[in-house]
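Appendix C: a fully annotated inverse folding record. The material below is reproduced so that readers can follow the format used throughout the book. The structure is listed first as tokens, followed by the designed sequence.
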């Protein structure tokens, strides 16, 4: 059953051309960032092993394109840092966690916030 569900998940969400996970049919304002979708796929253990290195690189590239800042919400952050750490990219997880300018976790905590707010994802569209 797990193999069938993983295959169906990948059939629907995995974009092999771009080595990422995305949501077909959503507009820019509804679209989840790769920081969320890739981290969730990694947590679920559904990334095809032969593509895992490239998918994780897509995740790192997305983080780099946001100047080593978050571009995910509360769902994504739960899985983002562990995904990076498990993939041997603790260096990237540390850069994210040490960022003091918005949007970042420490910036929000220092402002007394109880949630993470990120820049609009629509900038990619």
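Designed amino acids, in order:
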């Amino acid at each position: 059953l797990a193999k069938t569900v993983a295959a169906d998940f990948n059939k629907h969400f995995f974009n092999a051309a771009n080595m990422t996970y995305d949501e077909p049919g959503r507009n820019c304002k509804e679209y989840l960032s790769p920081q969320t979708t890739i981290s969730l796929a990694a947590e679920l253990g559904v990334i095809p092993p032969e593509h895992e290195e490239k998918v994780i690189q897509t995740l790192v590239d997305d983080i780099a394109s946001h100047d080593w800042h978050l571009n995910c919400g509360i769902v994504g952050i739960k899985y983002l840092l562990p995904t990076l750490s498990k993939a041997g990219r603790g260096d990237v997880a540390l850069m994210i966690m040490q960022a003091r300018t918005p949007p970042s976790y420490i910036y929000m905590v220092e402002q007394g916030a109880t949630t993470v707010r990120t820049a609009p994802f629509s900038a990619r569209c």
